[in-house]
Amino acid sequence: MAEASPEILAAARRIRLLILDVDGVLTDGRLTLDADGNENKTFHVRDGHGIKLLHAQGTEVSIITARHSPALAYRAHELGIHRVYQGYQDKCLAYTELKISLGLEDEAVAYMGDDLLDLPILIRAGLAAAPADAHSEVLKRVHWHSRLGGGRGAVRELCDLLLQAQGHWSTILQGYLEREPR
After folding, report:
1. Angle at 149 between CA 147 and CA 154, to 5 degrees
2. CA 60 to CA 171: how far, in whole Å?
3. Beta-carbon neighbour count of residue 111 at 10 Å?
4. Pair 19, 106: CB distance under 8 Å
């Protein structure tokens, strides 16, 4: 995991909602289209496990993306992400709706984005994060960035940071270390 300053850890302790962009964050940003124009996306399994670990500790996870994708809808359902906003060119509309519906202020929200379209939320979020391969203008403005690229475990790094900062990591790890082989 990328290094985190005391200020980043303090911000991470306040997070109750993690919002993720998709292309370039949950995926590597490449679009794979078949001859009929159907889109395929590749998601990293460790990102998914990190999301499930956050859910288990009570942190809400949501997705806001400018594109529509049946593959994303399927993956979000698999991960138990119920608040998925697809087709939002103005992502701030979904961001504001999420905050109001959950009764949260900016300080309780972490957002991971990778491109210019994400900047309006990144500059408001209590913890702004980006994958290592995000656009340079994004990297200049986030509080924290992962060591890994989008679709390559960046989301998992952020999930682990949140879990560690909130004091859940040692219990989670111990649960795996104490499991009996079957």
Report:
1. 70
2. 19
3. 29
4. no
Residue the block writes with tokens 């509309």 = 93
Hey, what are 30's tokens? 């490449």
Nearest to 129 by CA among 55, 47, 20, 42: 20
What is the residue whose two structure tokens read 């905050």? 99
Query: CA nearest 145: which of 164, 126, 122, 128?
Result: 128
Beta bridge pairs of residue 180: none
Among 3.40.50.1000, 3.20.20.70, 3.30.565.10, 3.20.20.210, name the CATH number for the domain at 6-175. Answer: 3.40.50.1000
Q: Which string of b and e fits 24-56 if b means at least 16 CB within 10 Å?
A: bbbbbbeeeeeeeeeeebebbebbbebbebbbe
Tokens of 155: 């989301």
- Name the pTM for this structure: 0.95
- Encode 14-62 in three state secondary structure: CCCEEEECCCCCCCCCCCEECCCCCEECCCCHHHHHHHHHHHHCCCEEE
Compute CA 68 distance to the chain's CA centroid, rounded to the nearest angstrom. 18
Express each pLDDT in 125-154 by its tens digit: 999 999 999 999 999 999 999 999 999 999
Res 64: pLDDT = 98
Residues 6+ apart with CB under 8 A from 108: 14, 15, 16, 17, 126
